[in-house]
Design brief:
alpha+beta, 4 helices
Length: 120
């Protein structure tokens, strides 16, 4: 039996909480995200990328490398490719005077080597 963890994102308005989205992940797996949802009314506000960032930050705290459960939907592919590209460009800019390997990039960004290769 798998244990799922759910991370809920809410907007607060007039002391009321409104569910904007969530992501889930299986506790004991290399995937840092199983399912992600941003409700239609809250889309186009950057919440999807925020939730993806949060999932990777949790992985880095746990000193794990991970990625989303696959296969990804068309929208998932587009969103992750955009997110991975942004994260890798930031990494390269921050480390432009250093020598690093694919393994170093993976450990320091939390992105799997496979996803880094696919993005590059």
């Amino acid at each position: 039996m798998s244990i799922f963890l759910f991370y809920i994102l809410c907007e607060i308005e007039n002391n009321e909480y409104h569910l904007a989205g969530y992501f889930s992940k299986v506790k004991e797996t290399e995937n840092n995200l199983s399912c992600i949802l941003v409700l239609p009314f809250y889309q186009r506000k950057g919440y999807g990328k925020f939730l993806i960032t949060f999932s990777y930050e949790l992985s880095l705290i746990e000193q794990k490398v991970g990625g989303p459960e696959k296969p990804l939907s068309d929208l998932g592919n587009k969103t992750y490719l955009s997110w991975w590209t942004q994260r890798l460009v930031e990494f390269i800019r921050e480390n432009k005077n250093e020598t690093y390997t694919l393994i170093d990039m993976s450990k320091r960004t939390g992105i799997t080597e496979e996803d880094i290769k696919w993005t590059l």
